[in-house]
Prior knowledge:
Elements: E1 3-4, E2 8-9, E3 12-13, H1 61-79, H2 86-96, H3 100-105, E4 110-114, H4 119-133, E5 138-139, H5 147-154, E6 161-164, H6 170-177, E7 181-184, H7 198-209, E8 220-224, H8 228-234, E9 240-244, E10 299-302, E11 305-308, E12 315-318, H9 326-341, H10 346-353, E13 364-368, E14 371-377, H11 381-391, E15 398-401, E16 428-431, H12 435-445, E17 449-451, H13 455-464, E18 479-483, H14 485-496
Helix pairs in contact: 1-2, 2-5, 4-9, 4-10, 6-7, 7-8, 9-10
Amino acid sequence: MTSAPGTGDAGRSGDAGGGPADREALPGGPATPATADSPGAPPPRPGAGPAPVRPARRVGLRTRLARAAGSAAGAASRLSGRGAGEVVTGRVVLRLAPRAVHELAGERVAAVVSATNGKTTTTRLLTAALDAAHGGVVSNGGGANMRAGVVSALLAGPGEAVLEVDEMHLAGLLPELAPRVVLLMNLSRDQLDRTAETRQLAAGWRRALAGLGTDGGRGVVVANADDPLVVWAAGTAPRVVWVSVGSSWTADARSCPRCEQLLTLPGDPGDGRAAADGAEQAGGWRCLSCGLERPAPGLVLEGGDVHEPSAGGPRRHPVRLALPGQANRRNAAMAAAAAAELGVPVGDALAAMTDVGDVAGRYAWLRAGGVRFWLLLAKNPAGWVENFDVMGTSDRPLVLAVNAQGADGRDTSWIYDVPFERLRGRRVVVAGERSADLSLRLAVAGVDHRTVGDLGGALRAAQALGPGPSAAPGEEEGVDVVGNYTAFQQLRGLVAGGDR
C-alpha cells in the first residue's frame, strides 16, 4: 500500500504511542513516525517474504508435561468417538499449565481473527493464503475459538499460527498471544444471555489493543472501516490498516460508540456533507456530534473486486471463490489485507483462497435419510441476513432449525430482529427445539410454513415438497437448510451417524 503525502500509508492510522487505553484519538490520522528498528516501525510491505518469527519464549517443563497429557486426552476423545479432541486437549493442558498460551505462542508468528460473524471462514481463507506462501501453518480452523481451542492449535505444530478467537475472549488472550496481526471484522448482537452488549465488547477490545507491541512485538490491526464499533475499538492501537468491505447489517451501528449520539449512515439526512477538509464522505458513516467517522480505507471491496492502492493507481484484483455470496467476498478481502501484512501480495492471497470449499461444514452439500441438502449456519440476526443473501433467489424447499441450548443462548427473542419477511413465497419447513417460537415469528412475518419437530423429519418433509420451478427435469436439486449452532451440529450428526 502506498503512502499519501503527509498522511502516512493509505488506509493506515496510528496514535502517538504510550497514551492511556481510554484516550479518544480520532482514527484515520497520520501514522506514528518510527525508525526501522523501533517498536513502532511498520511491518514488512507486501511481497517482502515470510514474516520473521519472534524469538521463542521458553516452554517450561510443566507445559511440556501438560502437552503430553493433553495429547493423550485428545486421542482418547477421538478414539471413543466423542469428538475431535481439540477442546479436551486444551482444557487438560490449561489445568496443568496455566501459562501454556503465553509460552506456546512465542514459538511462532500468530495472526488472530475475531468478529461476531465470519471469523471461522476468514480464518480458513487466511490460513490458505499463508500456507500457500509459507507452508506449515497451524490453525484452529474447526471453530474451537476459546482458550482451550487456541492452546490445542498451538500444539499442532511449530509453524505460523492463524488463530480464530471468540470476540469475548480476545481482550484476555491478546497479551499472551502477542500476535503480529489482529484482524477485526465486525461486532453485532449475539446470544443475548451469554454475550456482553456490543459496546462493552468494543470497550474491552479498545483497552487490549492499546497494549499491542508493548512487549517488543510489531502487532498491526487490520480493521473493517465500515463498522463503527470496530473503528472505535481499534482507535487505541498503535498501527491500523483500514479495509472497506461494506456491510449488510447496520442495526447495531446506529449510535456512536464514543458519544452515544445517532450516527449518520449512507442515505440518511446529512449524508454526503463535506468533511472538515472539504473531502466528500459519501458512502461512509459519521457522528455529527463528536466527529467520529469512517477512516479512509486502503483496500476496498467493490462488488466482486478488491482495489489495492499503488503508486500507479489502484490495482484491481477479482475475488473468485468457491464459497458463495458477497459475505464471503468480504471475508476474503479482509483476509487478503491481513495476508499482505504478513508478506503475501494481495493477488497471491486471493488466488490461494479460490479452492476453499465448505468451512467446518458450512456451505457443504450433505445427504441424510436419502435427502440431499445444503447446510448453512446462522447464530444471530446479522448472520441470518447474510445467509438470506447467500441463498439469493433459490426456490428450493427451505428448512429453518432453531435450538436454545447453552451454545445457542437460551433467549430466542432475537428472532424478531431477523427480517424473515424476505422469505415470503418460499416453501418453508420449521424444525428444532424452539420450532414453536420460530413458527410464531414466521406467522407474524407472513411466511407460509409447516412445522415438523425433529430434524430428520423436517428434511423429508421439505424434500416431499418437490424441486423448485427452476430445477431441470429429473434433477435432484435438494433442500436448503439454515440452523443455529447446535441445530447445525445435529444436522451434521445425521450424516456422521450414517442416516443416509
